Amino acid sequence: xxxxxxxxxxxxxxxxxxxILNCDYTNSMFDYFLWYKKYPAEGPTFLISIxxxxxxxxxxxxxxxxxxxxxxxxxxIVPSQPGDSAVYFCAASDKxxxxxxxxxxxxxxxxxx
Amino acid sequence: EPEVTQTPSxxxxxxxxxxxxxxxxxxxxxxxxxxxxxxxxxxxxxVSFYNNEISEKSEIFDDQFSVERPDGSNFTLKxxxxxxxDSAMYFCAxxxxxxxxxxxxxxxxxxxxxx
Lengths: 113, 115
Hints:
The complex is a heterodimer of chains A (113) and B (115). Chain A is mainly β.
């Protein structure tokens, strides 16, 4: 039961270019979406979030776009830097539901020199 | 920046043995969680804990699992009789408010290997 899907297990992007990571969800009750970044041997760290009342949220080089009708969100990183190489997890929660956050399987981003 | 601390970083155990994974959440946080990630799979919710009791648990969190906050700082996950399929990276997390609409702070994880 994959409520949050990240269909690309990996992505390679040239340094300086835009990285676009995609995420789809199936549960229409989700109303808060997050992206976490994970380096090897570390726990996930929060990157950026978006509420369902918005369609865009920007924080420096990171922008998250939400398309509720398509149940799709994406994370844009521009320009991509070597330190962005990591696994990126899309996650979602339902404010009327329980405490858990549902994660996708992650996308490994490689930034090429 | 304050952080969530987990010990040990690696734990190897024999099938059927009990293990206790330890976590020190961020001091002013009120909500505590355990997640796990089996190699190559997604990060899965196990349990949430608030006000000294479990507030939510997943179907993975069966009778073999328990959580405890024995004092004001530690938060532990106990697996009574480990199985091979319990091998995973276990992450502790905490938050100031409920997970919905709130980011979680994760520890670095405990890699549990059941032989």
